[in-house]
Each structure stands twice: as structure tokens, then as C-alpha cells.
Amino acid sequence: MLASLDPDSDLTSLARDLSIEWGSVPDYANTFVQALHRPLPLEESAGDHVRRAAWHIRLRGGDSEGNSTGPGEILAVVAATRPSMAGRRLALHGWVRPAYRGLGLGRRVFTHAIKDLTAAYPGHQLMVDLGPDNPAWAGTSIRNVGWLRVSEQLGFTRDRSDPTRFQMSRTLM
């Protein structure tokens, strides 16, 4: 089920799994989880509820008899933030649990995010950071082959503005 991420969602399990996968990159998991808790607004404040730039796909929680048992496990998640208040650059943070990769979940949630972000932030530059750009670090290529392919298919191109990072960007139009 694809839906907006509730800011009060319990992200403990997701943060643990993300930390295991990205443990070799200092503060990566913490930065990612902070992005999920503080995404960009998608609209002007309308009372207590403001739609935020964070989406997820989760399993439906249920028992063996089909009864609902509450929210299920988050399988894929994407959130957008603004790296700095200056300029028109936005950062998109996305992750799919390893057991669910290759099933189209990342493409689905990224496509939905890009559609919503284009409506809210037309003309902005959207960045995706795929980790350190270090050929000696095997994680760069192994972890990112799928994300690289999906990013390119969604209109992202290589951004070399920071030579230490493997980044992709596209203009929201």
C-alpha cells in the first residue's frame, strides 16, 4: 500500500535495518531517519494537517486469518528535504528493504514522490545521493546498481558538483 508517511510512524525497525546496511557510512542512517521525520511541506499550512514530502509502501498488517493487526512493516520509503534555505535544490532520500528490491517498489514510490514534488516545487533541482564516490569502496557499486538504473529511467543524470559523492539530479518539470 502506497501512502503518505505519518510523521508519528514508528521507524525503529527501519532505522535498525538501514544502520546494518549502511553501517560503514558515518551518520548515514541518522541523517536518513531525520529526513523522514522532517520532510518538506507539500502545501501551505491548512490548520493542523500539512501534507509532507514523505511516502512509504508497507505491508498490510494482518494475522493468518486475514484480521488487521495494525500497520505492517515499511518496505520502501522516500522523503524530500531542502539541504539549505538558499537556492532551489531539494534532496530526495529513498530506501527499499533488501528483501524487497527488484520488485518495482522503489520505482513506484519515487515516481509518486516526483509527481507530488513537481506540483509543489516546479523548476527546483531534485538531487539523489547514492553514497560516497569512491571506486575502492565496493558498497558504492553493489548497493547502487538498482538505484542508478531507476534514477536514470526517471530522468536523473549524473551530478558531479561534489566529487566525493555519487549524486544524480533532475529538474522538476
Largest beta sheet: strand ordering = 1-2-3-4-5-7-6
- Number of folding domains? 1
Radius of gyration: 16 Å
CATH topology: Aminopeptidase
Query: What letter string, H or E per element, gives the SSE order?
Result: EHHEEEHEHEE
User: Which stretches are low in confidence, meaning pLDDT under 50 for 5 or more residues running?
Assistant: none
Helical percentage: 25-40%
- Calculate the terminal CA-CA distance, rounded to whole Å: 26 Å
The CATH superfamily label reads: Gcn5-related N-acetyltransferase (GNAT)
Q: What's the total number of strands?
A: 7
The helix tally amounts to 4
- Shape, principal axes of CA atoms: globular
Secondary structure class reads: alpha+beta
The CATH architecture can be named as 3-Layer(aba) Sandwich
